[in-house]
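Progress against Task 2.4 (sequence-to-structure conversion) is shown through the following example record, which the project officer requested during the mid-term review.
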Amino acid sequence: MILQSSAAVATKIFQERYEYEMKRPESMRAVAAMAGTALLLSMGIGSSFLGGVATAAAGSHKKGVLQPPVIYGGFQHSRIYLPQGDVAFADEAYDFKLGKKKSEVLWRKPEAALGPPDFSDYEADRLAQKPHFLCLGSTGSVILHFSDNALVDGPGPDLYIFEPSISRTSSIVLEISRDGVNWTRLPDQVQTAREVDISKAAKPGEPYHFVRITDASAIDEADQWPGANIDAVAALNSALKISIDDKALFDDDNKFVAGAANELNKVKDLWENVNGNKVIIEAYGEQIGKMHTSEKVLQEQVDQVKDWLTKEAKIPADRISTQIFEDARSLAVRDVPKEHGKDSRVDCTVILNNRDTVGSGITTRPVEYIDGKWNSNLGPVIIAARFNPKTKQTSIAGEWVEVPTKGAVIQDGTYNPKTGDLSFTFRQYNQTHGTGTFHLGADPNRVRGQWKSEDGKTSEWILERPLY
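Structure tokens generated for the chain above:
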């Protein structure tokens, strides 16, 4: 749930849930983590500036592109940080091919792999006859599509595949694609429940809308759930996408219709609310039936959209690129006529700045420099840093985990890009309050600071970027 009340109320609710989890036996907390007990960091969504922290039950796959950052539990108590929130998860499944050794029929439904991780118990699935993960079976495969976001190559790992068990990981072959037709395979074998870097297969700055996962594990005759089991798939480095039906933009003469500006204003609003690096406009043609969209028509469409975005949204022309796809993968159900329109569309994907692309001036250290996961001498730290372009404020939230049973909520943080000074308060598992104060110097991968508890105890606190 999203709590849009005061920061104090949101924080109180989160702390009560956090304390409850920390008092539970390790095994039960592990199950809860994999069931999707997530930390939802409500901060700077669109034109609002919420602040504070609230709990979110995974499985409530919120609609809308702008969402708060969220942290999920992963393999062996690892913490998975999604800067763009639940929009990061795959939304549609295609071409599920069951493997040689099969699971029970219940876990053969590909839609169970969509949205946030929500598995909690095998027997609960059986009793409800509702699966919460997809079992590929040995050598099985599935194609997943990101409909409101895209996978991109960014700093550190880019993709994470959630398994339903905190102690299980499977070997897979992973492929990525822009159009669902032409695929690029990661050269190395990949493991589920591990953070995956796609840099060896991805082109810099390109959005990938599809992933294909093929099980590559050895056949185990005793395994009830053979092959890779997929609870959810998330783009850790995620672009944001507005997909528009071409009929909402163009008439039969391929000219803008009266309401086209209403649709394109969604792209304008998105650009104004994020720190965008560039916009990629992609036009897709009809894939089903006799109506094949020509290259000329598609090129006219992307040119008109680009012209509107440069003039009306004031996006520099050199930060907009276009691409057309005459023969992309169809997203429609072939025997359902009303589905056929899904293929004729224009996708506007906003590639966000990250700490590698945002650049640094002499007098500024962008918020992207501090956002994300850090190692530290006091345990792993996740800092969610958001700059709100409308309010000109930076909000800081997150978590710090000394060990799996000893964690702390980070809240009420501030960051000054001009000075590199960062501060926040925290509340630990044992109710201890304290503060962290840091300074980001010339090295953006290292932050030095001090931990101070409410009783006056202090210690040096050094944050360093993980080496991937």
